[in-house]
Write a structure and sequence with these properties.
Strand order of the largest sheet of chain A: 3-2-1-5-8
Largest interface: A-B, 101 and 114 residues
Distance between the termini of chain A: 80 Å
CATH superfamily of the largest domain in chain A: Cupredoxins -  blue copper proteins
CATH architecture of the largest domain in chain A: Sandwich
Oligomer: heterodimer
Number of strands of chain A: 10
Order of helices and strands of chain B: HHHHHHHHHHHHHHHHH
CATH class of the largest domain in chain A: Mainly Beta
Shape of chain B: globular
Largest sheet of chain A: 5 strands, mixed
Largest sheet of chain B: none
Order of helices and strands of chain A: HHHEEEEEEEEEEH
Structural class of chain A: alpha+beta
CATH architecture of chain B: Up-down Bundle
Structural class of chain B: mainly alpha
CATH topology of the largest domain in chain A: Immunoglobulin-like
Number of helices of chain A: 4
Number of domains of chain B: 1
CATH superfamily of chain B: Cytochrome c oxidase-like, subunit I domain
CATH class of chain B: Mainly Alpha
C-alpha cells in the first residue's frame, strides 16, 4: 500500500526541514524589519514607559525561544528522515521535571514584573500631586465627547431633563453653580484636549453600547461600559495631536469612530480652560 | 475492575442490535444511523461543508481588508446585496465577521473534533462495539443541522446576519435585528447537541473499555477527547444560560444585560468567557491528542512522557476554567482580580510548554515516515510554538493593554485555535481516512496541500502580529482613516494574497477527499502499522466494529521500536498477547 522508498522519504523530510527553516528565518527577519516599519507608534506617555520596556523584554525572550524550538524541530525532522532505527525512549523524569520547573520559573518572573506594571498603571494620582486634571469621556455611536470641570475643578450636576442635543448634550444643571464653567467638547468636531506633564484622570462612560477608548501613542485602552464608570490614568509628555480609535465592536460605524486628543503645553492649557469655560456644547 | 466494560458492552449491544446485522434500508444505515462511525462521518462531512462556508466568508473579508474602498463589479453581480454599488456593504461585512467566527469555532472545529473524531475514535480505540447511548448519539448529530439552519437563516431575514461578532456582547447584541435571536437559538441548540455527545463520550470511555484497557493504557486521543467532553459538560451550560437570558432580554422584556433596566453588560462577558475560554481548549485538546498519536505512529517512536501528557491535559482542563478574565483585562475589572487572572493565565502556559517539549522529544531520534498525516502533525508543532509564544505577551495584562482587541490577538488565536486545530483535523483525516472509508488518500496531492496550507497560514497570520504592533484594532471594516497605522496597506495586501492561496489550497484537499473516498486504492487493515485497536478492525469496520470478539489489550499503545522486538518488527500492537509477539509478523497478522 504505502510504499515509499528510503530516498523519497529523505526528500520529503528535507522539504519539511526547509519549510520550518524558512519559517524560522522569515519569522525573525520580518520581525526585525517590522520594528522599523510597523512597530508601536512613538510613545508620548510617562506612565506607559514600563509597558514598552516589558514588551521589549518579552519580545526578545520569546524570540529566543522561537529560534531554539523551531530550530530544534527542523533539526530533529532532518535527522528523523535519516536515522536507521528509532530510539526506544519514552520517559526521563529528570528531564521532564527540569523543563517543567524551568518554564514555571521564567513565567513566574514575567508574572512578578507584569504585576507591578499592571498595578502602577491603575494607581490614581495622589491627591497631593500638584499637577492633575480630570476629563470625563463619553463614547457613543460613533464618536467621543468630553466634559471638563472648568477652572473651578468641580463637575456640575447633570440631569436628563436638561439634555438638549444642540446646546447642552450632557444635561448640565443650569441651577448648579459648579456646572456653570464646565466645558463640553464634541469630539466629532474638534479634538479632546489634555495638558502635557499633568497626571490626567480619564473617567470613561458610554451612552449606548460598549466602546473602548484606545489611544495608541499614549498606550491606553479601556472599555467604556454603559452603566459604569471606568477610570484610567495617563501622563502625556509631548504636545501634539494623537488619534483615538474605538477598540470594541460597537456597531456598523465602529471602524469610523475616530477621534483626536490634542495635548497642549501647560500655558496653553490654562488659557484654553479660561477661554472655553462655560461652553456646554453649543455648536461651534 | 476496569475490565468490567466488556460485559457491559456485550450486554448493551445485545439489547439493541447485536453485531449480526440484518440488512438495513439506506435511510436507516446512512441517514438516521445509530452506528458511531456513520455518525462520525456525518459530523465530519457536515462540518467540512461549514468550513467551506466559513472560509468563503473569510475570503470576502480579506477582499475588503486588502483593498478597502475598491469596487468589485464581478462580486456585485454575484452578490448584489453584499456589494451594493460594487463596494462591500459595512453591514454585510460585520455579518460576515460574526458568522465566520461562529461557523469556524462552533460549526467546524468543535463539531469536527468533538463530533467527528470523538465519535469515530472512542469506541474503536477502547475496543467497544458502539457508544453507550447510540440513539442519543443520533439525536446529537441531527440537532447539528437544525442549529445550522437557524444560523444560516439569519443571512436571509430582515437586517441580515448579526453584526455583533461571535462574542455577541450586549448591549450591542440587544439592539441587533432579528438575525441575532436566530443566532442565539442556533447556539443554544448546538450546545444541546454537544452536551448529548459529551455525555456519551464520558460514559463510553468510563464503562465500555475492553478487557485490559485500563485508563493508563488509553491512547492519548481518547484521553484528550474524554477530558474535552468533561470540560464541555461544565462550560456549555454557562453559554446556554447566557444565551437564554439574552433571548429573554431581546424578546421577553427582561433586562439581564441592559443597564437601562438595572442589568449589567459585564455579566454577559463573565458568562460568555467562562464558557469561551474552555472552548478554546475544547478545540485544541483533541487536536493535541490526535497529533500525539499521529506523531508516534509515523515517527515509529513511543510518545515521549505519556504520564506528563495525560497530566498536562488534566491540568489544562482544570486551569481553563479560571483564566477567563484575561479576555476582560480592558473591561475595567479591579486590578486585584486582573492579577489573579494573569497568574492563572501564565500558569496554563506551563502544561502547554510541557506538551510541546514532549512532542519535540518524540520527534528526536525517531525514524519518521513523512506521510501527509505526519507532515500535518509536525506542522502542528511548529504552529503551536509560534501561536503559544505570542500568548505570553497577551497573558501579561500590562502589555495586553496595548494589544487587546488589535490584530495581534487575531494573529495569536488564529495560530492556536484556527491553524493548529485545523492541522489537527487534517492530521487526523489523512491518518484515519483508510479506516473510515477503506481507501487510501492520494499522498502526492496531500503533500502539495500541506506545503501550500503551511506557507499560506504563516503568510496570512504571522503578519497580523505586525498589524497589531502598529495598533490596528480588530473588527474594523476599513483602516484607511487612521494616520497612526502608517503603511499597513502593504501588510494587508500580503495577508489577503496569502489567504487566497490558503483558500485555494483547500480545493485540492476537497478533490482528494471526495475522489479518494470512491476511487482511492483499497486500504489494508493496518496500513500505517499502528498499535491502537482501531487498526485491528477491518477497513472500514462493520456495524459493531469487531468481526469477531472484542480485542483484548495487553500493553500501552505506544510500543514502537522496542528493543526486544524481533528483527523487522518495529511495533507491538496493543492486541497482541506476549507469546505471539515473536511470531506475529509486521502488524500482528499472524496472531489474529
Amino acid at each position: 500500500m504505502h510504499q515509499v522508498t528510503e530516498r523519497e522519504n529523505r526528500r520529503a523530510g528535507a522539504v519539511v526541514t526547509l519549510l520550518i527553516g524558512l519559517v524560522l528565518v522569515a519569522g525573525v527577519a520580518s520581525t526585525v524589519y517590522a520594528t522599523k516599519r510597523w512597530w508601536l507608534p512613538p510613545l508620548v506617555s510617562a506612565t506607559a514607559a514600563p509597558i514598552d520596556r516589558m514588551f521589549n523584554l518579552l519580545m526578545v525572550s520569546i524570540g529566543i525561544v522561537f529560534v531554539l524550538t523551531q530550530g530544534a524541530l527542523a533539526w530533529f525532522v532532518w535527522k528523523a528522515a535519516r536515522n536507521p532505527r528509532a530510539l526506544y525512549w519514552h520517559e526521563n523524569k529528570r528531564l521532564e521535571s527540569t523543563w517543567t520547573v524551568a518554564t514555571a520559573v521564567i513565567l513566574t518572573a514575567f508574572i512578578v514584573m507584569g504585576y507591578q506594571i499592571w498595578l502602577s498603571v491603575h494607581t490614581p494620582p495622589a491627591a497631593a500631586a500638584e499637577k492633575t486634571a480630570v476629563v470625563e469621556v463619553w463614547g457613543q455611536q460613533f464618536y467621543w465627547t468630553a466634559r471638563y470641570p472648568g477652572p473651578d475643578g468641580q463637575f456640575g450636576k447633570t440631569d436628563p431633563q436638561y439634555v438638549d442635543f444642540k446646546s447642552n448634550p450632557f444635561g448640565i444643571d443650569p441651577n448648579d453653580p459648579a456646572g456653570q464653567d464646565d466645558i463640553v467638547v464634541d469630539g466629532s468636531k474638534g479634538p479632546i484636549v489634555m495638558p502635557a506633564g499633568y497626571k490626567v484622570t480619564v473617567q470613561l462612560h458610554s451612552r449606548d453600547v460598549i466602546h473602548s477608548f484606545f489611544v495608541p501613542q499614549l498606550r491606553v485602552k479601556l472599555d467604556a461600559v454603559p452603566g459604569q464608570v471606568n477610570e484610567l490614568y495617563v501622563e502625556p509628555t509631548e504636545p501634539g495631536t494623537y488619534e483615538i480609535a474605538c477598540a470594541e465592536l460597537c456597531g456598523v460605524g465602529h471602524f469610523a469612530m475616530r477621534g483626536e486628543i490634542q495635548v497642549l503645553p501647560e500655558s496653553e492649557w490654562q488659557s484654553w480652560l479660561a477661554e472655553h469655560a462655560g461652553e456646554h456644547g453649543a455648536a461651534q | 475492575m476496569a475490565h468490567g466494560g466488556t460485559q457491559a458492552a456485550l450486554a448493551g449491544h445485545a439489547t439493541h442490535a447485536g453485531h449480526h446485522h440484518e440488512p438495513q434500508s439506506f435511510w436507516r444505515r446512512y441517514i438516521f444511523s445509530t452506528d458511531h462511525k456513520i455518525i462520525a462521518i456525518q459530523y465530519l462531512l457536515t462540518s467540512l461543508v461549514m468550513a467551506a462556508v466559513g472560509g468563503f466568508l473569510a475570503m470576502l473579508m480579506r477582499v475588503q481588508l486588502g483593498w478597502p474602498g475598491r469596487q468589485w463589479p464581478l462580486l456585485e453581480a454575484l452578490m448584489p446585496n453584499a456589494f451594493k454599488g460594487g463596494r462591500m456593504d459595512p453591514d454585510f461585512y460585520y455579518g460576515a465577521v460574526t458568522m465566520h467566527g461562529t461557523i469556524m469555532v462552533f460549526f467546524f472545529l468543535t463539531t469536527a473534533l468533538s463530533g467527528g473524531f470523538a465519535n469515530f475514535l472512542i469506541p474503536l480505540q477502547i475496543g467497544a462495539r458502539d457508544m453507550a447511548f447510540p440513539v442519543l448519539n443520533m439525536i446529537s448529530y441531527w440537532l447539528f443541522p437544525v442549529a445550522i439552519v437557524f444560523a444560516l437563516a439569519s443571512f436571509f431575514v430582515q437586517g441580515g446576519a448579526p453584526g455583533s461578532g461571535w462574542t455577541a456582547y450586549p448591549p450591542l447584541s440587544d439592539r441587533e435585528p432579528l438575525g441575532q435571536t436566530l443566532w442565539l437559538i442556533s447556539v443554544f441548540i448546538l450546545m444541546l447537541a454537544f452536551l448529548a455527545g459529551g455525555i456519551n463520550y464520558i460514559t463510553t470511555t468510563l464503562n465500555l473499555r475492553t478487557k485490559g484497557m485500563s485508563m493508563s493504557r488509553l491512547p492519548l486521543t481518547v484521553w484528550t477527547l474524554f477530558v474535552t467532553a468533561l470540560v464541555g459538560l461544565f462550560a456549555f451550560p454557562a453559554l446556554m444560560a447566557a444565551a437564554l437570558m439574552l433571548i429573554f432580554d431581546r424578546v421577553g422584556g427582561t433586562h439581564f444585560f441592559d443597564p437601562a433596566g438595572g442589568g449589567d453588560p459585564i455579566l454577559w462577558q463573565h458568562l460568555f468567557w467562562f464558557f469561551g475560554h474552555p472552548e478554546v481548549y475544547i478545540v485544541i485538546l483533541p487536536a493535541m491528542g490526535i497529533v500525539s498519536e499521529v506523531l508516534a505512529t509515523h515517527a515509529r517512536k513511543p510518545v515521549f512522557g505519556y504520564r506528563y501528557m495525560v497530566g498536562s491535559t488534566l491540568a489544562i482542563a482544570g486551569l481553563s476554567f479560571i483564566v477567563w478574565g484575561h479576555h476582560m483585562f480592558a473591561s475595567g475589572m479591579s486590578p486585584t482580580l486582573g492579577s489573579m487572572f494573569m497568574a492563572t493565565t501564565l500558569a496554563i502556559a506551563i502544561p502547554s510548554a510541557v506538551k510541546t517539549f514532549n512532542w519535540l522529544a518524540t520527534i528526536y531520534r525517531s525514524k519518521m515516515r513523512f506521510t501527509t498525516a505526519a507532515l500535518y502533525a509536525v506542522g502542528f508543532v511548529s504552529l503551536f510554538i509560534t501561536g503559544g509564544l505570542t500568548g505570553i505577551i497577551l497573558g501579561n495584562p500590562s502589555t495586553d493593554l496595548y494589544f487587546h482587541d488589535t490584530y495581534f490577538v487575531v494573529g495569536h488565536f488564529h495560530f492556536i485555535m484556527g491553524a493548529a486545530a485545523l492541522f489537527g483535523v487534517f492530521a487526523g483525516l489523512y491518518h484515519w481516512f483508510p479506516k473510515m472509508f477503506g481507501r487510501m488518500m492520494n499522498e502526492r496531492l496531500g503533500k502539495i496541500h500541506f506545503w501550500l496550507t503551511f506557507l499560506g497560514i504563516y503568510g496570512t497570520f504571522f503578519p497580523m502580529h505586525f498589524l497589531g504592533t502598529a495598533g490596528m484594532p480588530r473588527r474594523i471594516y476599513s483602516w484607511e482613516a487612521y494616520q497612526f497605522l502608517g503603511d499597513v496597506a502593504t501588510l494587508n495586501h500580503i495577508i489577503s494574497i496569502s489567504a487566497f492561496v490558503l483558500g485555494a489550497a483547500q480545493l485540492i484537499f476537497a478533490f482528494n477527499l471526495f475522489y479518494s473516498m470512491f476511487r482511492g486504492p483499497k486500504a489494508e487493515r493496518n496500513p500505517w502499522q499502528a498499535n491502537t485497536l482501531e487498526w485491528w478492525a477491518p477497513s472500514p469496520p462493520p456495524h459493531g466494529n469487531w468481526d469477531e470478539a472484542e480485542p483484548v489489550v495487553y500493553r500501552w499503545p505506544y510500543e514502537y521500536s522496542p528493543k526486544y522486538a524481533p528483527e523487522g518488527v518495529d511495533h507491538i500492537p496493543q492486541w497482541l498477547p506476549e507469546p505471539a509477539v515473536a511470531t506475529a509478523g509486521r502488524d500482528g497478522a499472524g496472531a489474529r
